[in-house]
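Risk register update: the risk of archive-format incompatibility is retired. Evidence:
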Amino acid sequence: VQLQASGGGLVQAGDSLRLSCAASGHTFNDYAMGWFRQRPEKEREFVAAISYNNRSTYYRDSVKGRFNISRDNAKKTVYLQMNSLKPEDTAIYYCAVDRRRYYRGFTYYLSSSYNYWGQGTQVTVSS
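Archived output:
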C-alpha cells in the first residue's frame, strides 16, 4: 500500500488549503481513511476520519466547522479541506489507512487503528 500526500504549504492565518492523499495497492473502497498531524514538539494527533462507505466523518474538536474530510473512491483519493487556518494548525499532516475492513465503529481517532501511513505534508500557518 502506498499513500502520497500533497497540498501542504505556507499560508497566512485565515487562509485555506486542501490536502490530497492518493492511495494505491489496496481496495480503497473497503477501508476508512484518516488524517493525523504532528505539531512541533507535540505527539501525533487525530484530525479527521471518513468511513469506508463515505457515510460518516469524524473530527477533533479544534477543527470542527473549519476542516472537511472527503473521499473520491473512483480516484482512490482522500481530501482534507482546511479553512480558517490558525497558527496552531501548523504541523506535518499524515494520511493513513484503517487496518479494519468495512469498519463501522468509533475508534478512528486512535493511531493504532491504522496500518499504512503516507509520508506527510507540511502545513505552516503564519500569524
